[in-house]
Automatic annotation (TrEMBL):
A motif ('HIGH' region) lies at residues 11-21. Gene3D superfamilies: 1.10.10.350, HUPs (3.40.50.620). Catalyzes the attachment of glutamate to tRNA(Glu) in a two-step reaction: glutamate is first activated by ATP to form Glu-AMP and then transferred to the acceptor end of tRNA(Glu). GO terms for biological process: glutamyl-tRNA aminoacylation. The gene is gltX. The keyword Protein biosynthesis applies. GO terms for molecular function: ATP binding; glutamate-tRNA ligase activity; tRNA binding; zinc ion binding. One of its GO terms (cellular component) is cytosol. Belongs to the class-I aminoacyl-tRNA synthetase family. Glutamate--tRNA ligase type 1 subfamily. This is Glutamate--tRNA ligase.
Amino acid sequence: MSKPVVTRFAPSPTGFLHIGGARTALFNWLYARGRGGKFLLRIEDTDRERSTPEATAAILQGLDWLGLDHDGDVISQFERADRHAEVAHQLLAEGKAYKCFATQEEIAAFRDAARAEGKSTLYRSPWRDADASTHPDAPYVVRIKAPQEGTSVIRDQVQGDVSIRNDQLDDMILLRSDGTPVYMLAVVVDDYDMGVTHVIRGDDHLNNAARQMMIYEAMGWDIPVWAHIPLIHGPDGKKLSKRHGALGAQEYQAMGYPAAGMRNYLARLGWSHGDDEFFTDAQAREWFDLDGIGKSPARFDTKKLESLCGQHIAVSDDAALRQEIEAYLAAAGEPALTDVQSTDLERAMYCLKDRAKTFPELLEKAHFILTSRPIEPDAKAAKALASVSDSILNELTPQLQSASWTRDDLEALLNQFAEAQDTKFGKLAGPLRAALAGRAVTPSVFDMMLILGREETLARLTDAAG
């Protein structure tokens, strides 16, 4: 029987949740969730100078916004330093690692000489096989004994088999001279202790795999399944960076992208399932597999992101959409909705969500319920109002006073009214939009009237007629 799948996401808390990190987390989450496995979270906070509690909080908030829930407690790598050192001392005791007393100056001098002679600068410590009786009473690092012959093969589910000659591997440091463990050791020990079966991460870590395998093999531990995924590039084909605009997951929340659309887009960024572009979370969990990940870097495309977000907004549950919009307003530092506005927004969702690609677009369409009298028309709306005489609006008001307030009846009444004015309803629609919403682009006049109700509709038309 095969072991249950365990994946992990292990960010460094030195900044926000980068969009590339968000995709890595998503791939790990999808792989585990689709197989009834566990998705674990580890904060790699060993760099004490650059790691901050604020960055950890930002990463957790970003994952929370994306809906990527993790199993168990968040693991702090820093807090496990004693365990990492314990493994290094075990390797030392078993003769698989050694104490190296070479100074920084000696190593630098060796490299300078090798460079001058055109030789490899890979440092070979003279202490590798030195007798313990010759050890000086001086600071030392602990190095692993790297294999010196043959080849190490990284069996990668995305990149294929990657071979590295062992004579290209140095005796990697495990413990610094102050006794603190290095990142490479910490990662392996943590992954082993957490029971991680699949390491899915960026391909900038591919070379690390060969060095980390040395520790697995020296300890007699099973090597996890490797899957190194290509990085994300900007539209210009260069590595995604600040010059391409927003980078943090929370920035995308604050820009008004729905989480479901972002999940869908990130899943498609470097992974595919046939020609499917739009899919649900359930489909993504069912379909996601490592063999669908491409070897080439994916390009971030905002238009595609917006298109998918629009499709997700259109099929979202109205109550869930209202809640997510309220969270967006908080993230963007915008004023919260009142209870009445929130209720009206949900009631109106059927006529707001069809063509909105982002929440700001949807809220712009919802302006008619989020504003209050007197309505301030924008420039386009003011122009539309000026195109119709006040008397026309004044004539319409008493007819609406006694109308049956259903869509069919309102539609019939307004079309008859337009005919009586010797015009088409299309000519009246612009001024009515302007009167009811103060905007030129709105849901249909009939939808606005139904949502606003008779009293508010008549009050707005009376205001507009002056």
